[in-house]
Specification:
By secondary structure, the protein is α/β, with parallel strands linked by helices. Helix content is 42%, strand content 18%. Strands 3-8-7-4-5-6 form a 6-stranded mixed sheet. Helix 9 (221-230) runs parallel beside helix 10 (246-255). The longest helix has 15 residues, at 166-180.
Amino acid sequence: TAPRRAHAAPMPSRRTIVTRPQRDAQQWAQDLLAAGIEAVALPLIAIRGVRDPALHSALLRARAECHNYRALMFVSGNAVHYFFEGFSAPALAATAQAAIHTRAWAPGPGTAQALRDAGVPAGRIDRPAPDAAQFDSESLWQQVAPQIGPGDRVLIVRGAAGPATEGGSGRDWLARQIAAAGGSVEFVAVYERAAPDLSPAQRALAQQAATDGSVWLLSSSEAVTHLRAALPGQDWSGAHALATHPRIAGAARAAGFGTVTECRPAFDDVVASIESLHEL
């Protein structure tokens, strides 16, 4: 989870709809509430560990061989969670010791925190600069490029192949940069993404939030796709979207959101943007 800031007192606000996967959405909603912003979780991406036997076997091999890589790049906190899921504490400690020369790359502060929570020493974690314009593969590469030379192997830990998201092109771009520097890239899938099965109450919430001034916090263009599929024909012209990446903002505009604001995905930036929207 990204670092939190203290707020003096709660303030009346529009409701914020947090659309991240369940685990992240609940945490973000709690943190926003603590910051004085009314928030509710409405997960628009379902996440689960890989079930395909071939993918699971590949994951087990990657865990056993992680010390052979120059770096492991985790695309999200969920990638961290499912890569380490099932490790006992002693096994995790042994893996960390074996991989002492392996760097852990995180595209943003939330993923970096997940790595620390998993037991990876902070000194082995690389992430974009705190003042980076975006927390993504491009900003990460600015920090880690000097680590890669001929023969270096990088493992990208991600979700199983599915509909293109804002992360897909970024990972491909990163792989090209690594290859240009003489390194090689391998991928391992540790979780599967799918459309959520919204309950009647969740559908009713989404329909109401399309017109009541709620702020939709969008952190994935895939979430926008799932929202449109769940509510076909819904008019979004009166809805407000807060997108944490330009590609997500483009998806929100294509969906018909009447107001689309972009901000960095850091928690403080999200809070400041929500507060600015409340003043409109």
